[in-house]
Amino acid sequence: MQPFDLLDGALLVDKPAGPTSHDVVDLVRSQFGLRKAGHCGTLDPNATGLLVLVLGRATRLSETLMADDKIYAGAMRLGIATSSYDAQGDVVATRPVPPLTLDQLNAAAARFVGDQLQLPPMVSAVKQDGVPLYKLARRGVQVERKPRLVHVYQFAFTDYAEPLAWFRIACTKGTYVRTTAHDLGQQLGCGAHLAHLRRLASGRFDVHDAIELEQLLKLNAEQFQQRVIPFLRLVG
Q1: Is 8 part of the annotated catalytic residue set?
Q2: Does 2.60.120.10 match the CATH number of domain 70-201?
Q3: CA within 20 to 30 Å of 49's CA: 27, 151, 200, 211, which one?
Q4: Could you give the residue ranges of the DSSP H alpha helices within the chain?
């Protein structure tokens, strides 16, 4: 068996708001002359936080690492529902926000803990007949989507200052936190959308161990190599 290269491994990046997950991969691949690179779990362009990149022969582990559970923190904006369930979509409904306490929000959140059948938003990377839903949405095409089984381990609000409700959620892969925000808004009767989202952890990896993209792109080859988690540590 061919020995592993020093750049066969994983890289933990703290993604800023703006670029897509694929943009981050392309920037890192180009900057450091990598032949193969990918990521383990898409973050929406305006989401921030932990993005796990796999390099070289570690790309074969992407499906395994992508299957890990995730932890996020974020904020929902109550009173406004959007087409994409986040701040980038068109406003589709506005309603007054009823008087709410943190305890009431957490009582509503508790109903989302456990197994959930979740309907993916139209603006998502889920594919219909091989075509990502977001491409269909751009054409104004609405299609019937199949609910997907996800599991929410923990969902709790940590602060509330109308109209923003800050939360933390731990869930399985494939969970759309945007959908959770939308569904909770419907349950409250006022509508809601996801205003901010940050991924804190994915499986064993934590955002505290990640490097900001801007800093990463300033590293020299030796410094970059030191940031790579070796392949054998990923499978150990």
Answers
A1: no
A2: no
A3: 151
A4: 21-32, 62-66, 102-110, 133-138, 177-188, 213-216, 221-227, 231-235
